[in-house]
Design brief:
The complex is a heterodimer of chains A (267) and B (318). Chain A is built from 11 helices and 9 strands. By secondary structure, chain A is α/β, with parallel strands linked by helices. In chain A, α3 crosses α5 and α5 packs across α6. Classes of the chains: A alpha/beta (267), B mainly alpha (318). Chains A and B meet through β5, α3 and α4 of A and α8, α9 and α11 of B.
């Protein structure tokens, strides 16, 4: 038997019978000023996975997503999406930023915001037409927001705003969804809507990578996890990764022993 | 008032005022929504040293050298603001405040020391403009107003501003989606592959262009007012960005025409023979429109909010 050959990542061609991973990260390194935020991260996302990215505050979870999308400068690293560069694969990615990252007083209705998810498809300088607005309303319907299409976005509750973002991501008809804390500060109805949508797109063949901070629900909502604390601590199936030892390593003294045991036990 | 007087004195001033207000007002929508309203203020002040330098180098008050000087000054100011923000660890508003006051002061010193003030540029014009001296010479009545000979003598500020306003309107219509999404959610815009940084740089360059074109005719006070008031007034009246853009144009036109008419003819109503500063009066009208919108706007006005609060209280179960 021949020994395995080492092939540089850049030149490795995906074989036809093995689909390339939805997301392959090699050596991703980001620093703010002199403080490392993400250090030498390697990760391959499983196809059709529902993946939670967990870790303590300041662990670089949001930064990792932003760096993958080229929204923050990286010091090093290579990111492939379905085997292609980011530029080639952009239309296959939908990004949901943190809800607090935008100004909700902006003069736009829920329908306007969802239509923004179609801008890539519409293209430069072309107007939003009636069929695009109809499509936007159908995506709002899928997240239970059909009655709020014309509402100015600042008049919506936090959970409703999050569902508008979710509908916008659906409008992008992506194969890889990157969500930054979609569950932060939302009501129970929105939480259910997000989980349902994640499962729907997964069943339709997409992969979801979601920054998540509520350790109690990781095992219920996701089937894979990436534990991050600047370095990748562990990744794999939720059952294998949510162990006392790994959580202790990621969170250090920041989680009470009993809490960690409860989470590890629930997985 | 004869037709010749109106055509040669009032009409060009009104058109210059309306075009200045429209070009700055349109861009102001995006500045206000991006929380960069102060940039218009800063650029209209830093234009002064640039205009003086342009005049000193070229030796004429032709549009091109003055425009170029002002553009260069605006670019230098943008660089300085960025340097001071980083090196001095200041927030950008404070850095802008330092840069534009200093550069405006340098402009005034340059004016005083070089004798450029004899050539129709001085500190007073920088603040209030010279709307009243925008004259259309060589027109004698409505009959010959559209002849080539008369049109070729239209004041150059008017022609410059018409071009700048048209360019801004075309830009906003053509790149409406891109401006909208990059203003609302830069993260999404970048993930869609839009060049977010380039878009904001181009926006600032166009703001500088509008500020400089308008500044020369109407002065910095009106430029600042027009970057903020029409947009802020329109925002009170609607929740749709496209409607806000149209309303801001309407506010700009009302302020431009109304302000000029009040300044030129208002004093005669109470027996005064002097007229008032047109640029000043236009800014006052814009401010009054903004105040009226804040009080009486259908959803966001103080009155309607008070009424809503009252009815909500009545709705409460006893």
């Amino acid at each position: 038997m021949n020994p395995p050959r080492l092939i540089p990542f850049e030149t490795r061609q995906p074989r036809n019978e093995i689909a390339p991973s939805p997301l392959s990260i090699r050596g991703l390194t980001v620093a703010y000023d002199d403080k490392p935020a993400v250090w030498d991260l390697d990760y391959d996302a499983p196809d059709r996975g529902l993946i939670a990215v967990i870790g303590p505050n300041g662990a670089g979870k949001s930064t990792m997503i932003k760096a993958m999308l080229g929204l923050v400068p990286t010091l090093a690293g290579d990111v492939r999406v379905f085997g292609s560069t980011l530029r080639q694969a952009r239309r296959r990615i939908a990004y949901i930023p943190q809800r607090t990252s935008v100004d909700w007083d902006f003069p736009a209705s829920a329908e306007d915001v969802v239509a923004m998810g179609l801008y890539g498809e519409i293209g430069w300088c072309r107007p939003v037409r009636r069929r695009h607005r109809e499509a936007a309303r159908s995506y709002l319907d899928r997240v239970g927001m059909a009655d709020f299409a014309g509402r100015q976005i600042g008049q919506l509750s936090g959970g409703q705003q999050q569902r508008v973002f979710l509908a916008r991501a659906l409008a992008q008809k992506a194969d890889l969804y990157l969500m930054d804390e979609p569950f932060a500060g939302v009501d129970a109805a929105t939480e259910r809507a997000i989980v349902n949508v994640m499962r729907e797109v997964r069943d339709a063949g997409a992969t979801v990578l979601c920054v998540h901070h509520d350790l109690q629900t990781v095992a219920d909502y996701f089937d894979h996890a990436l534990i991050l604390n600047v370095h990748a601590i562990a990744h794999g199936a939720v059952d294998d990764v949510l162990t006392e030892e790994l959580l202790q390593r990621a969170y250090g003294g920041r989680l009470a022993e009993t809490e960690i045991r409860a989470i590890a036990g629930s997985a | 008032m004869t037709a010749a007087d109106f055509l040669s004195i009032d009409l060009p001033a009104i058109l210059v005022a309306v075009l200045s207000a429209t070009s700055c007002g349109l861009l102001g929508n995006f500045l206000v929504l991006r929380r960069q309203a102060l940039i218009g203020d800063a650029i209209s002040h830093v234009a002064l040293p640039g205009i003086v330098a342009g005049f000193l180098i070229a030796g004429t008050i032709a549009t091109l050298p003055l425009m170029l000087g002002a553009m260069v000054a605006a670019v230098i100011a943008a660089g300085l603001i960025e340097i001071i923000r980083r090196a001095g660890r200041l927030e950008s508003g404070a850095a802008m405040g330092v840069v534009f006051t200093t550069m405006f002061a340098i402009g005034i010193v340059l004016l005083e020391q070089t004798g450029a003030s004899n050539a129709h540029i001085d500190a007073e014009h920088a603040l209030y403009g010279n709307l009243e001296s925008t004259l259309w010479l060589g027109v004698t009545g409505w009959d010959d107003a559209l002849t080539w000979e008369a049109l070729s003598q239209l004041p150059r500020q008017l022609i410059t501003l018409a071009g700048v306003t048209a360019a801004i309107a075309i830009m906003i219509v053509a790149f409406y989606k891109e401006l909208k999404v990059s203003t609302f959610d830069a993260g999404l815009a970048a993930s869609l592959g839009l060049p977010v940084r380039t878009i904001s740089t181009v926006l600032i360059v166009v703001v500088a262009l509008a500020a400089v074109a308008a500044f020369e005719a109407v002065g910095s006070i009106l430029v600042i007012a027009m970057f903020i008031c029409p947009a802020a007034t329109a925002r009170m009246l609607t929740d749709s960005l496209s409607r806000q853009l149209w309303l801001s144009v309407l506010v700009a036109v009302i302020a431009g025409v109304g302000g000029y008419v009040l300044a030129a003819f208002g004093p005669q109503f109470w027996g005064d023979t002097d007229s008032l500063s047109a640029a000043g009066m236009i800014a006052v009208v814009a401010g009054l429109l903004q105040t009226a919108a804040m009080i009486a706007a259908p959803r966001y006005g103080i009155l309607s909010r008070a009424i809503r609060r009252r009815t909500r209280q009545l709705d409460l179960p006893a």
